[in-house]
Amino acid sequence: MQKFKRVGLIAKGGAIEIRGTLRSLMEFLKSRGLAIVTDAACADLLPKSQVEIVERRVLGGTCDLAIAIGGDGTMLNAARLLSDHDVPLLGINLGRLGFLADLSPDAINETLARILNGEFVEDRRFLLHSQVVRDGQAVMEGDALNDVVIHKQNVARLVEFETYINNTFVYSQRSDGMIVSTPTGSTAYALSGGGPLLNPDLDAIVLVPICPHTISNRPIVVDGGSRIEIVVGTREIDHARLTCDGEIAEQLLPGDHILIFKKTKQIRLIHPAGHDHYAILRAKLQWGRELC
After folding, report:
1. Residues involved in catalysis
2. Secondary structure of 62-130 as H, E, C letters
3. Taking 80 as the threshold, does the pLDDT of residue 288 lie above it?
């Protein structure tokens, strides 16, 4: 019995290289009698008569399954858009690593058919919500599935800031910045910065300094319910910025308070049956062959 009836498709804008996979996916979904809606990026890669186009920000309210076609960047963007709608998200990987988008294009007919019949595993991942408070007013808000990052904007100088967890002062620091990551994001920028790998099921947040001036500043793992506050101490106006999942969100000013905490609503990720997180880590991080 078919589990889903209306599928929404999300793609990276201008990604001509996904056109063949996208068209194959469309043909397969139509052969199953499913209704299909797409964002504008998908529509630009398909014959106009084949698609119903909706705005990406409301797509989650028009379907009962969303499929992102591209790499993990497309998945991150889709997750931020869909988390408020409680719609499961599946990724077809056309990128490089594919920690999140774990369905290969050549598995569409076989594996996707099983998923549509209800043969899949689902896990829920939390996102981080961030605010930049300036002179007592929130001037920016943003969500991130991977990480919220404060980092320097030029090469010459370090960023100065103070970090508080649940209103308790932790440390002052001079570094290239700070990565505040979810367990999902622990395989991304946080990993490159020397942070630990967190199991996706953990209710935890990791703070990873970026090239700290004092080498005793090490990554810290805190409870997922923690409220993190970072106060910018750098005096230069154009010296630091904030990004959410790698997208520039706000230029930071001296005295800005960055508040970071868990978003109330989560994203539902769909994986093929038999999904094994550690097998993915072995493959993507080249940890070596199994001994048995």
Report:
1. 72
2. HCCEEEEEECHHHHHHHHHHHHHHCCEEEEEECCCCCCCCCECHHHHHHHHHHHHCCCEEEEEEEEEEE
3. no
Q: Answer for the pair 109, 250: CB distance below 8 angstroms, yes or no.
A: no
Fold of the CATH domain 6-118: Rossmann fold (3.40.50)
pLDDT of res. 33:
92
Host H or E run for residue 241: strand 240-244
The Cβ of residue 285 has, within 10 Å, a number of other Cβ atoms equal to 13
Sign of CA dihedral 166, 250, 16, 47: positive
> Based on the number of CB atoms within 10 Å of its own CB, is 288 exposed (0-12), middle (13-18) or buried (19 or more)?
exposed
**pLDDT digits 0-9 by tens, 64-96:** 999 999 888 899 999 999 999 999 999 998 866
Confirm if 205 and 222 have CB atoms less than 8 A apart.
yes
Domain boundaries along the sequence of the chain: 6-118, 127-264
Task: For 124-185, give the DSSP string.
Answer: EEEEEEEEEEETTEEEEEEEESSEEEEEESSSS--EEEEEEETTEEEEEEEESEEEEE-TGG
- What's the CATH number for 127-264? 2.60.200.30
Mean pLDDT of 178-205: 96
Hey, what are 123's tokens? 């896990």
CA 174 to mean position of chain CA atoms: 27
Is 237:123 a contact under the CB 8 Å cutoff?
no
Banded pLDDT at 227 (limits 50, 70, 90): very high
